[in-house]
Each structure stands twice: as C-alpha cells, then as structure tokens.
C-alpha cells in the first residue's frame, strides 16, 4: 500500500469513494442530500493524501495544515478494517505539528473507537441536538 499526495486526476475516484463511504456509514444523516460534489466543497483548500494499491484508491485524508486539523479520513467500505485508516492517520500525523485536532460525530461510534485506539483523547463535546461531535486531540 502506497501513501501519496492526491492530484486533480484522483478527484473523480475520490468523489465516488467519499459519497459511497458516507452513504454506507453515516446512518444518522440524510443520504438523499449527499452528492458527488460534496467532496470538492468539503476539502476546499485542504492537503489531501491517498492510500493506493494496484492503482486503486483505498482511502484518503484531507488536512487543514494551518490549524493542524484532520478534516476528513475515509476508507472505501470494501477495505475497512484492513489497516488503510491506520496508515492514513499515521501519515497525517507526520505531516502536521502536534497537538493535532479533529472532530468526530458523537454517533459515529466506530470512528470514535478507532481514534481512541490510536491515542486520541476526547476534549469536549460540541454541536447541537441534531449533530453533536467530539473535539479530539492527539499529542505525545
């Protein structure tokens, strides 16, 4: 598995991966409102890295480097639990200065466990009744 910076040629595949991943795992969200174009809007001005194998993108992370913030980390549903997320998380951490932050939707128990298993700690729960999320921090 190779971790590399994304380029514009990757965007069509990344759009599909982002949409499919969210539709399958965001059980609390209205999937009818999700579009392929969400990827472009949700990663604007972010540094994107991809995990790739056999010329297929298995997952990606988008980082807002000025704030040392992981905005998105998504793995294609077919490759969940196979180390893709761990490699993307490690590469993201190496790209930024600690402490590093992210926000994780409180209802996303699988993601919460993933981050906590990798040394992230919950700091504060924010948001409204519709969508609460945890601000999480990583620092060693």
TrEMBL record:
Any GO MF annotation of the entry: acyltransferase activity, transferring groups other than amino-acyl groups
One Pfam family recorded for the sequence: Acetyltransf_1
Keyword terms of this UniProt record: Acyltransferase, Ribonucleoprotein, Ribosomal protein, Transferase
Residue ranges occupied by any N-acetyltransferase domain in the UniProt entry: 1-140
A GO CC term attached to the entry: ribosome
Superkingdom per UniProt: Bacteria
Iron listed as a keyword: no
PROSITE patterns linked: GNAT (PS51186)
InterPro entries documented for this protein: Acyl_CoA_acyltransferase, Bact_Acetyltransf, GNAT_dom
Designated name of the protein: Ribosomal protein S18 acetylase RimI-like enzyme
Organism of provenance: Baia soyae
